[in-house]
Amino acid sequence: MTSAASNPKKEIRVNAFALHSPVHHSPGMWRHPRDRSLEYNTLDYWVDLAKTLERSLIDSLFMADSIGVNDVHGGNLDTALRHGAQVPKQDPLMSLSAMAYATRNLGLCVTSNANHEPPYVFARRMSTLDHLTRGRIGWNIVTGFAKSSVKVLGKDQVASRDERYDIADEYMDVVYKLWESSWENGASVRDTATGVFADPSKVHRVDHEGKYFRVQGIHMTEPSPQRTPVLFQAGSSARGQRFAGHHAEGIYLSGPSKKVLTPVVAGTRAEAVKAGRDARDIQFFTMATIITGRTTREARDKYEDYRRYVTPEAALAMFSGWTGIDFSTYDPDEPIRYMQLDAGTSSALEGFTRLDPERIWTVRELALHNAIGGRGPVFIGAPNEVADALEDWVDETDIDGFNLSYAVTPEAYEDFADLIVPELQARGRYKTRYAPGTLREKLGGRSSLLNERHPGAAFRRYPSRPLRNTP
Amino acid sequence: MTSAASNPKKEIRVNAFALHSPVHHSPGMWRHPRDRSLEYNTLDYWVDLAKTLERSLIDSLFMADSIGVNDVHGGNLDTALRHGAQVPKQDPLMSLSAMAYATRNLGLCVTSNANHEPPYVFARRMSTLDHLTRGRIGWNIVTGFAKSSVKVLGKDQVASRDERYDIADEYMDVVYKLWESSWENGASVRDTATGVFADPSKVHRVDHEGKYFRVQGIHMTEPSPQRTPVLFQAGSSARGQRFAGHHAEGIYLSGPSKKVLTPVVAGTRAEAVKAGRDARDIQFFTMATIITGRTTREARDKYEDYRRYVTPEAALAMFSGWTGIDFSTYDPDEPIRYMQLDAGTSSALEGFTRLDPERIWTVRELALHNAIGGRGPVFIGAPNEVADALEDWVDETDIDGFNLSYAVTPEAYEDFADLIVPELQARGRYKTRYAPGTLREKLGGRSSLLNERHPGAAFRRYPSRPLRNTP
């Protein structure tokens, strides 16, 4: 009995996927007359987008990030810069509160690299956001280093993948201690009558002395609605799957076919079970792009219109960056029969680098194929056709939903709201309103907190006390 | 000829001073029925505050911060926690974009410690904010470490003050290189016709190899409206004044009397001149609290009402934290004749720890005195009386304005808008509308960029090109 068969009509969840850059996965599209990508550095763009996503009942906006750059193609940054291909790239944390203020239900999931700042500072930052958004924050845990990001951080070399995950495991221990164990429930009293703000006997110092980190002090914020933000991960190496099996509540994936995804989903669910969790404690979202219209013809015309703006050279530069292979040195018609991943390639991008093993690609095909929608499928068609595809992918791969990228923004999300949402709702596969509560509860959690099987829950000092949050 | 005499009617500038905590400088006041301090962890509070400040034509909101805690009093955190005395304390960066979206002119100046994150990551974060706010960002440069913050960052000891400033000087070099030299003007092309986003020949790699930092890579964002955010500083030691004389465009001060402030202002202006800048290239803002009403009587009644809510014990805990002296071990009536500053006390707080040398204080008096308004003056009176005091302070000390703290928030800023602003405007000492342009221009700068005398300007690679920003 497959999981899909046991749950044939599960609700399809959808995140929106974005990057603070003129290009995310569809290079060249910033030139399209209806595209607003060039406004990526304005709050108007992000607030308008957040409102559109909330209108679509989309679960969350997932903000990708890295401080690496696509400098593999031609051995320099020129192609990436010329096309704005994920460079420049702004800090996604900085726009969140404006989007949070303009919405009430949209989750805000942000990529942040555990190597960029001390765990104490980072834990406080996430707790602040979880307070300000009233519990709508998710964290996509990134542990990797692109080579270019190592240079800007002044480090000598990329740690091995295994050591990176060891560091990340200890980093997680530190932030769990701060989020889960420092302030007991009930520590925050806020009593104007007695003048007691907090009960010092219920606020505890974290004493962490590990191999990589040392922290001694209380967590700097009161418990936020979720304490630990909803945890996402994107790694898909064996070690990455193990890390995700332990820590992740959501996994962002990418793959060109259902066949590629299915074993990744099953493998990571198995890692969760090995870690003492339930296979269903993790939700999987795969990247996809939808191009739709009222009819098949309208959708295809839209796709053909979009294609006039693609820049395959930029797509190839991005693919070179993801894989560590300089495709500028290949003949465009050369078939790519075997691809060896560069070990130093950021693990954050591993999920994007799986080629469909069922066909042979030429360099030129690869570039064109990736010029819209990157490494994920592109569903082109009328709403019923797209909905069929979405259902098939969920039911056959056991994913929980999609991480929705775009060709033209915000048109892609407006089309999703106007055309796809009603179709999925009519099929009983999409929510008709947001669930109440925090992001964790909206995603199906029974409480605003990590569930008791999650390893972060083991850091709670006071399991006998009711784990309800202060208001 | 004194500077004040040469400029007898200079406009009085006003910032508002805030901390993401239930207490800033008036412990206990969160219990006042009209006070909204307990909402410090909500966006509603911060957005409403920002709108009120903009209604007052206040130049900027200055957000204090540190990850240190007041754990000197009694040798533990209990008193600070019980009263919420600057603990908990959230990350002030996280609320900025919501405030920026809700306003058009208010500057947003944020304290960020150069020790908390790599300069590359920090420079990108500030550039992002400068883009998103359309050039309204200021940075209060903090170089210090409270002992408690050293422990949470896993460091063994506090660097000496001199070394901290050496590190900070090199940190500034790195961020200037990223902000000023990496992207030439005109590098960001954004041409939808040709498909060129950026001109790679005008984007340059920073190669910094110093004693404390090593960075190799391009700045990750396009030039923001101000490139370098408006730079503020608060140190007042001799080394701190030298650092400020070099880097600061604004100085936040605090002192209980005009006599205490005057030499600090003159000394730092002299350091600016020594550094090849103009004495007027730095503006000085001293902390002050205003309690006003339509009449003297109304103001005094308000003050007496507020005093019913003060918690002197918390004020003493905060003062213990600032000075490094455990006042819980003193007899309340003991006179304090001489106070030796603890060398490890955070330099960020140096400005707050100057006692008035003209009188002898008892511990009890110190606590009561500090329970409203902290280390700055408290002006209590009808609008004309308060305006007289503000004018006197500016004219006699050569400061440029105030850093307005509060007893009850947002009442203090509403009163300022309704009562003090019209009085100062009638005297020709306060603006009647915001100046156009970026924060730097609103504060009197002739351009959105660092002026040519500022050491950051020396890092521009292309002085012969017009230093105008891309749109």
UniProtKB/TrEMBL annotation, chains A, B:
The record, for Gene3D superfamilies, names: Luciferase-like domain (3.20.20.30)
Q: Where does FMN bind?
A: D65, T111, Y165, S236, S237
Q: Does the keyword Translocase apply?
A: no
> Which UniProt keyword terms apply here?
Flavoprotein, FMN, Monooxygenase, Oxidoreductase
Write down what this protein is called.
FMN-dependent oxidoreductase, nitrilotriacetate monooxygenase family
InterPro entries membership: Diverse_substr_monoxygenases, Luciferase-like_dom, Luciferase-like_sf, NTA_MOA
Give the record's family classification: Belongs to the NtaA/SnaA/DszA monooxygenase family.
